[in-house]
């Protein structure tokens, strides 16, 4: 067995039983692992129409075949389930060290079924897997839980946990690991909370076998060289982290400000990566086997911890009109402690601020706390209230779409499929906007990071306003990303590596015979599988859309002034490029070509 | 004419955040980079007034030139 351990844990939380199952290797290699294999298992075992927070939904943790192997960034895991935020398939991906540790314990993944009748945590030490009482951990923050579990676990154990937000079923709750790494998006933390599952602590001492270690050494050093020599992965990310994007996105006039009412923030430099490095950065942090080390660790007043990332600086910064970097760092800290997705949390406060500005939310709901754009201290307090569902924070915990819907104006939620959009205004980045509209987990930038060619010029610079060729670019980016995620590698490697490189790493570790072309094809297979899950869940293809503001209201000022998003022109071409019919349904021909026609998937039900 | 040059990330070292350059007609971003002693290969992204610029774009009075080294993220 190479790369894969060939073993899955299946834990029934109601019965408190633990089983070890053999992994179907043929299936694993077809869907690679992680995101692909996890989605395949979810499809087979869960009715896509299931209530995401019911015991019938399952929560799957899956590593990739390269997780825990000597490959650059080979340390990631994914949480796959049906999302309570979007109703689509959810797959949230995280780095840190927990994923590799699970692999060293001898497992490729864990499938959680049912719901425990009282809070539990799972303790894994190689072959010893136990379901333990977590009543004393319930209510504790992420760092408190992590420290409490590390104290009673073998040395070098790694902890994954939810915070109070997940316990209280916030639809934007994250799953946290290693204290400050997050499987952040789509409310996966709420699914974990709904199962009364507080944490998983794991310690493993096995090695993952490699098929051809000589070949891997050569492929590894080749890919490492590319990563080191690439300007982004070799210098940009290590020096400034993702935070460096604040200024560049702002200079292009696509930094969403005040809930996407504007696209340029006059105080962007105050919340930029440069200012962060100058004032608050303590050290860099790297995930498992990562030669890039983009993680930041910051200290402000009495608070210190991992982050903030670019997305967080934007969400709590310009999107809330906040230029006070100290407050942004504190809001990030509380998201990590309470277990909230920083993108959705910040963007939900931004939406609430616009609801207040326009008179929908009134002072009598707010217990005297300001909800005005620009108030950094209030943003920190709202974050805490959201994580604990206190006062108006109870409404915030539902995410921006449901919040705005409560006031009859869902269009003020800047979301796709009810998931908050990230930190790039698509009106000035046309390919990226297409990607937002078609992402299988709703508003998301890492399902196909078109910022890379449209803004950063990697692998080549595209005109960000042009529609030419953007459908094919978006499709290719989406497909390769699905494969990178599934392999267990970090998406950031793709600034330096291409499909062939991933194929070679995979082959050296697992003895497979993937090529660049088949890596892309596997990604396309995974993409279609996710699409079919969503169709069967009842997600109408008409939901492949953007908020009305981004389609109708031109950007009011700055370098992207006058632009709206041209989704109507791009979407039909995108469906065509995907080999789907004009309604956005995968055709039998395409599914057959991808080899997923024989699995009862050819006729996706969509009512 | 007067050009505002905005510098970011590592390009700020020893140069500051913002530089104003006053010149006669015909100035290009290439001239600016040379004046500021920036190695051309260290400029990964070049914007003129927030739009993609070229090294040989002839600048006008009041133009804003933004220069970035290779940066990325997500």
TrEMBL record, chain A:
Instruction: Name the needed cofactors.
Output: tungstopterin; [4Fe-4S] cluster
Q: Where is the Aldehyde ferredoxin oxidoreductase N-terminal domain?
A: 4-206
InterPro entries the record matches = Ald_Fedxn_OxRdtase_dom2, Ald_Fedxn_OxRdtase_dom3, Ald_Fedxn_OxRdtase_N, Ald_Fedxn_OxRdtase_N_sf, OxRdtase_Ald_Fedxn_C, Tungsten_al_ferr_oxy-like_C, W-dependent_AOR
Provide this UniProt record's keywords sorted from A to Z: 4Fe-4S, Iron, Iron-sulfur, Metal-binding, Oxidoreductase
The answer to whether UniProt assigns keyword Iron-sulfur to this entry is yes
Matches recorded under Gene3D superfamilies: Aldehyde Ferredoxin Oxidoreductase Protein, subunit A, domain 2 (1.10.569.10), Aldehyde Ferredoxin Oxidoreductase Protein, subunit A, domain 3 (1.10.599.10), Aldehyde ferredoxin oxidoreductase, N-terminal domain (3.60.9.10)
Name one matching Pfam family: AFOR_C
Molecular function (Gene Ontology), one example:
oxidoreductase activity, acting on the aldehyde or oxo group of donors, iron-sulfur protein as acceptor
Q: Which family does it belong to?
A: Belongs to the AOR/FOR family.
The molecule here is called: Aldehyde ferredoxin oxidoreductase
Q: Which organism is it from?
A: Thermohalobacter berrensis
TrEMBL record, chain B:
InterPro entries named among the record's database cross-references = Beta-grasp_dom_sf, Mopterin_synth/thiamin_S_b, ThiS/MoaD-like
Q: Under what name is this protein listed?
A: Molybdopterin synthase sulfur carrier subunit
A single Pfam family it belongs to is ThiS
| Cross-referenced Gene3D superfamilies | 3.10.20.30
Q: Which organism is it from?
A: Thermohalobacter berrensis
